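Deliverable D4.2, example record:
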Amino acid sequence: MNQKPSIKLEFYVNYPGVCEEAFRFYEQHIGGRITTMLYHHQLPGTAHVPDNWKDAVLHARLEIGETALLGADIPNAEPMRSAYLTLEIETIEEAERIYDLLSDNGEVFMKMEETFFAARFAMLRDKFGTSWMLIGKSKTP
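Output generated by the structure prediction step:
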């Protein structure tokens, strides 16, 4: 019997110095849990790291449901352009709450509204540069 190898897809997002702020925001407001937060100054041999970058995030891990979002601070990182992190949200109320939080000081590409495929749908880039698709799957009874 041929057995398929176990593979898990995870997402890695680079930030221009706001990784910790972004991950703590997501942890607080989306219900994720930070399991790793390593900084450049924690590595041995950091003499080559500029002083203003020693407190930047080298590697972070945020678990949201069964998925992990990984991230780091990278000098001159650009906002996400052609990839979106997608949240499937159980209720309209929760979808609208998350939309309000993520769109605040962000850039909305498609405002939250009902579509033919979802009770609520939106596309946006948050204030940290992360692009999101929000899908509100069902209406509250």
